[in-house]
């Protein structure tokens, strides 16, 4: 695969890389942390092998944190403002808080909602799989091609993709709040965290940002990778 298209695939984890630039993360290196010998994923992800890495990636890409709000984000883009207002008025208070969050963010992240929060982190995990020598670069690129097909289906630009990531991170940070009034505050306050602002600035203004020179619209056939023989037992597409 041409290096340009490899870099496009690695750009799927650019929001995660932007969060870790000061710790040596790279936008373009297959290993994510090119100067590190490995990264322990056991405490943070419960991943300690190739099989557990693959299981996590497959599960989180299609059934990660974004699934809870996937339908509301889709619905917001299908209904008229009045229809949406009538829809959320029938919800219980706990659910209403999440739907208000969707109302306030759907216009900037598109119908994909917060799926890029999961997609970017799974791209990160695949690159760490290469760093830890659980995945070959070819295997990682194949997983990236599957992530890319989903990203291109749900988003229309790097800006939407980045917005989905940051909004998804905000939602994730508020997951521990159970009382509606506390969760409503957390969803509002955590969106403005310095770490979120820093990611947005890095990706929109830094000359090193891949989003400054890689167009979103790219020939999708150039991102296709034939499944390696070493992954033939992986029943997933």
TrEMBL record:
Source domain of life: Bacteria
Pfam families assigned to the protein according to its UniProt record, in alphabetical order: DUF1266
Span of domain DUF1266: 41-216
Protein name: DUF1266 domain-containing protein
Species of the source: Pragia fontium
Lineage: Bacteria, Pseudomonadati, Pseudomonadota, Gammaproteobacteria, Enterobacterales
